[in-house]
């Protein structure tokens, strides 16, 4: 199989997993005091605090989704190494650049888009989840 090296894919996945685990869950600070020092009213401060909590929990959810994807990809690597680099649904080869950017993907761009029609295409980085 000339498509992707299993060893390097596995190494990438493990490295990425370590990074995500090390980042850990986002800390949620219930009341940020610094907001009041820049002249924000209590009401705005409350709204800001709620926004921060929402952002943090979204971030945490994305992180755990990512971990699930990474673990799935690692399990697949062990179980069906012949299928690695192929889309789980249409069994077409997954674009190598896509796989390099996101080694945990198990769907080609097209099938992913069918699953996830609302998400923006063209996300670039690993931390660029939206
Ligand atoms: Zn596909």
Write up this protein:
The chain is mainly alpha-helical and 130 residues long. It has five helices and no strands. Helix 1 (6-23) packs antiparallel against helix 3 (42-79). It starts with 5 loop residues before the first helix and ends in a 15-residue tail after the last helix. Bound molecules: zinc ion. Zinc ion binds next to helix 5.
- Helix amount: 55-70%
Content-based structural category: mainly alpha
Rg, Å, rounded: 19 Å
Any idea how many domains?
Answer: 1
Q: Would you identify the CATH H-level superfamily?
A: DksA, coiled-coil domain
Categorize the overall geometry. elongated
The largest β sheet comes out as: none
CATH architecture call = Up-down Bundle
How many beta strands in the DSSP annotation?
A: 0
Within the CATH hierarchy, at the fold level, what is the topology? Answer: Four Helix Bundle (Hemerythrin (Met), subunit A)
Bound molecules: zinc ion
SSE order: HHHHH
Total DSSP helices? 5
Strand content: under 5%
CATH class: Mainly Alpha
User: Which regions are unreliable across 5 or more consecutive residues at pLDDT < 50?
Assistant: none
**Cα distance, first to last residue?**
32 Å
Mean pLDDT over the full residue set? 83
């Amino acid at each position: 199989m000339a498509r992707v090296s299993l060893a390097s894919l596995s190494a990438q996945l493990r490295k990425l997993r370590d990074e995500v685990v090390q980042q850990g869950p986002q800390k949620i600070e219930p009341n940020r005091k610094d907001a009041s020092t820049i002249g924000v009213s209590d009401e705005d401060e409350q709204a800001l605090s709620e926004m921060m909590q929402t952002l943090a929990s979204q971030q945490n959810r994305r992180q755990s989704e990512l971990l699930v994807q990474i673990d799935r990809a690692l399990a697949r690597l062990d179980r069906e190494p012949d299928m690695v680099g192929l889309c789980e649904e249409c069994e077409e080869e997954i674009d190598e650049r896509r796989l390099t950017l996101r080694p945990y993907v198990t769907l080609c761009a097209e099938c992913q888009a069918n699953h996830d029609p609302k998400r923006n295409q063209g996300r670039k980085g690993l931390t660029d989840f939206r």
